[in-house]
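BUG: 3D viewer hangs when loading the predicted structure for this chain

Environment: internal workstation, default settings.
Expected: structure renders.
Actual: progress bar stalls at 90%.

Input used:
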Amino acid sequence: MFAVLLQLLVACTPTCQDVCDKLVLCELDGAERLSPAECEESCQAQESLYDEWTDVQKRDAFDAELTCLYDAECTDIAAGTCYEAEVWSF
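Structure tokens produced before the viewer hung:
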């Protein structure tokens, strides 16, 4: 039972709020004027759009990008480690 719960927790995609809080803390070039609220609003709009389209590929790519951004170091993010042109917008 514990193993199943652990797998569910590990497999969860970070929230837009969690990712945006991190991005703002990273102080990335070009994002100086980005507030956490603006980032989160944009992220949630993109998330809703993919849900509305029922585009599983884009939704999976978006989830992978959120996970990458949340897990990566700020220097790696700045270097473009998580950049996915097909889904990146916020």
